[in-house]
Amino acid sequence: MIYLFYEFGISRDGYGGGQEILLQISKIHLEKSIDFKIFIPTRTNQVNVEKSLEEKIVYVRDSSNPLLVGIRLAMEFIRNLSLKEKPNKVIVFTSEAFLIALLCKILKIRCISYIAAPKIPLFRFSLDNLKNIKNNIQLFLFLLGAKFCSINYAISKEIKSQCLNSIFGFKDDEIVIAYPGIDKIYKRRSFSACSKRGNLLYLGRICTQQKSTDLILKALKIVKKKWNEFFIIGSGNLNEEKKIKQLILNRSLKSKVKVIATSDKNQIRKLASKSSVAIMTSNYESFQIAAYEMINQVDNIILSDVADHKILMPKSNTVNYARSNRYHLSRIVERNLTSVSTLSYKYKKNRLNALNKKIAWEKLVDSLS
Question: Which of 74, 91, 67, 81 is nearest to 150 (CA)?
Fold first, then answer.
């Protein structure tokens, strides 16, 4: 029996890397007939999951206070132990790790942490740390809990490096790198489209602080080369979505930009088939799963030099890197619009195969086993 704890639940607003990791790990456990339970808070805007997975979920009452959620998850953990359902392994992802990992250490249960936070603060005094005090408290509790774990995995070399530079004094051999993967649906041949030239897309959480959705819109306003439509695929909290929609109006882009709130992967593939360029820039990332999901779906990809992108997807004729500057990004977009040509299926397949040798969900699950 394996227990998985995830403090953020499975919600529309939070649909992103962490949730995808939880769902993919769970899916592989189901395929391998491995017995497991998922402990998460109930969310009012819950994403529907398959019945086979729903049966594995144990819900606790939600709260905006991460520490309170962590306490409730720990109490549910204790309650399940009292039912004589002692797991042989526990996997933790977020700030609930502190209490869960401490209990596991006391009870001599193997506890594994997967460190996938997009940014690890150094926990030194700074204005930025004060602004993000809630997130920093969550990460502080997570990393404190990680010190009690049997082993810790980091989602990328970048995150491992940040952990080693934090105040917790992790040693190099205490953190192992384990990359996530690409959903099988995105490995399928992309849908054919009559005309995709001049269409652009962004896939991921709509956000102005971590993601640079606003920067993309500012850059597109000054792109001189003609482009047709820009699909913003994803969702975010209501305030962030309002900011982006207002920016679209302010930049007079309403007729050309479509915000599509969906996590349906077949719909995403269909939208990608209509696009020649994916603009996946970001201010900081732990991995950015969505960028890798597009490698077999579009012709050209524009990225930011974040996480381990340049290690896993080196710069090439079809993979370009842009700085966090609207003028530089606009020039990269223009270059991609000019040079883009429909890539052959064989070329995309080779590009995907090269990536598959480095990252795969099955490899991650094997690492966590």
Answer: 91
